[in-house]
Predict the structure.
Amino acid sequence: MSPLAAPGHVERMRLLARNGFYDGLVWHRVIDWFMAQTGDPLGTGEGQSAYPDLTAELTFRRGADMPFTPVADPMGAPVGFVGSLPIQTQPQELMARTADGMVHAWGVYCPGVAGMARGEAQDSANSQFFLMRQAYPSLDKRYTAWGRVISGLDVVRAIKTGEEPSGTVATPQDVMTSVRVAADIPAAQRPVARVLNTASPASGT
């Protein structure tokens, strides 16, 4: 999860996971070459938690002290990573011209990125979320990106897809058995994942 990019949404995910809200919920809307969606207690796409809807966090402010690893610089809008989250951002040079010394940045919807589902209203996200099966850049700055799959993208892509164009799965077979915050699990039982340090030197090969 990326609290630097979406603190309110990360807080909600932690709250719901700690309450056991996600345990047993199905993946109710899945579209191949797009995304897999879950987080609805009704399993229909119409349900949500009892908590208030969230204020969208479509962009965030990036200062010089925020760890950022640039990868490319298309048309003056650098692309790179904040932690494991792929982002795009205004260039660092603009920081000297802003009142707070920061620039706008936003999550990039690459494969594995976790986004918050919502209705027509921008501030209507609640408990439903989706994981990207493939890249879909038209979602950038329209849906809050709050994290990324660091292990198991093959599993995300194996979730049963819907039969309808909408992606609705008529008979969902894939279930979130147990959703936990890794930091809450005793160290001896905590799953271990090896991920690339995005701030490490680039390979010459």
Q: What stands out?
A: The longest strand covers residues 85-89.
